[in-house]
Design a protein that fits this description.
Blueprint: E1 10-18, H1 27-42, E2 48-59, E3 62-70, H2 73-84, E4 92-101, E5 126-134, H3 136-140, H4 143-157, E6 164-169, E7 178-184, H5 187-198, E8 206-208, E9 213-217, H6 220-225
Antiparallel strand pairs: 1-3, 1-4, 2-3, 2-9, 5-7, 5-8, 5-9, 6-7
Length: 228
């Protein structure tokens, strides 16, 4: 699902877990609750672009991931409140929320399409997303030193052109410094990329890069149906 991409987008990855009591409801109640949730999310299409993913059976305690892009954090708050008032929303609890802004990269002067996946409307099959924070030592390095380290990191990443990246800046807005998201149609290739990146100098300055959410992109109706 997609609306119009705002000029200065606020990006949020919303991870929700299902209360098992949901599956004890009658089929009629569950069908009505899913429909209410579907309609509520669609009602925000003009202001929020939403991409839906399923985590059912993949990550303990997490069942739905919504990648949302809005013009303001106010819209994200108001739309989430509306979702919680639906029949299904009453049984979905926010387990993890990551929010940030899209900014020009400090280290990439001419980003490729691979590094600008936020602008794409068509999503790949798998999304891998996690919070990311660098060490204090990283920011104490000289600017040229950091650029050289990142040049190596960027070069290795570009050796895997089928993998797309979205980098969101959370400085001062959330617990992490960045939100890192990758899209791929092949998890083996993505894992090869991660292994290669582990061997670069930049890895030395990683403070935190968990939890990792690996989700499957599906139509919203299907994501909700998988909840039972």
């Amino acid at each position: 699902m997609s609306g119009k991409m705002p000029e200065n987008p606020v990006v949020q990855f919303l991870v929700m877990g299902l209360n098992p009591a949901w599956r004890m409801l009658s089929e009629h109640e569950r069908s009505k609750g899913r429909e209410e949730m579907l309609n509520t999310i669609h009602s925000w299409d003009d202001g929020i672009t939403t991409y839906s993913y399923s985590l059912v059976g993949i990550k303990a305690g997490a069942d739905v991931l919504l990648w949302r892009v809005a013009g303001s954090i106010d819209q994200l708050q108001e739309s989430y409140a509306a979702m919680t008032r639906t029949g299904l929303g009453r049984y979905l609890e926010a387990r993890y929320i990551m929010t940030g802004l899209v900014r020009q990269s400090t280290y990439v002067k001419k980003p490729t399409a691979q590094e600008q996946a936020i602008l794409e409307q068509n999503r790949k099959r798998y999304l891998i997303v996690y919070p990311f924070t660098k060490t204090a030592e990283w920011y104490l390095l000289k600017r040229d030193t950091r650029q050289g380290i990142m040049n190596e990191h960027i070069r290795v990443g570009r050796e895997f052109p089928t993998i797309s990246q979205v980098l969101v800046y959370s400085f001062g807005l959330d617990d992490q410094e960045f939100i890192v998201a990758y899209e791929t149609d092949d998890l083996k290739t993505f894992q090869d990329c991660v292994i290669a990146l582990r061997e670069t100098e930049a890895r030395r300055y990683t403070l935190r890069d968990t939890p990792i959410f690996t989700a499957i992109h599906r139509p919203l109706e299907e994501v909700l149906e998988l909840l039972g």
